[in-house]
Amino acid sequence: MNHACKKQYDLDCSLLEAVVDGDETKVVHLLDAGAHVDASIADGKNAVALAAKFHNHAMVRLLLKRGARVANFCNDNTASVRHDQTVMNSLFATNLAG
Question: Mind listing the pLDDT tens digit for each residue in 56-88?
Fold first, then answer.
């Protein structure tokens, strides 16, 4: 792995960890540093899916405002997330509010 790829990998992994930890300040810092807002873990869950899994609606809104794509988290691996009406309301309200 070359240096640029390793740096991106490290940024993306740190972003996912910050999302799981609920650390919005760190998430903003990592996104500003170049982390991919749609970075995902091995099973396909991306940052939005992880935030939704932990019912962190503020994090979901933050990620969506930073460009995360809803379609990237709605897959078979995150079926349980789709059933959380509160999260879905948060997603749609954020998308409609723009």
Answer: 889 988 998 999 887 655 544 444 444 455 566
Q: Tell me which residue of 29, 64, 34 sits closest to 46, measured CA to CA.
A: 64
Q: Nearest CA to 36 among 2, 5, 81?
A: 5
DSSP per position, the chain: --HHHHHHHHHHHHHHHHHHHT-HHHHHHHHHTT--TT-B-TTS-BHHHHHHHTT-HHHHHHHHHTT--GGGT-SGGGHHHHT-HHHHHHHHHHHHH-
According to DSSP, the residues that pair with 46 across neighbouring strands are 40
DSSP state of 46: B
DSSP state at residue 72: G
The closest alpha carbon to 48, from 78, 14, 9, 89, belongs to 78
pTM: 0.76
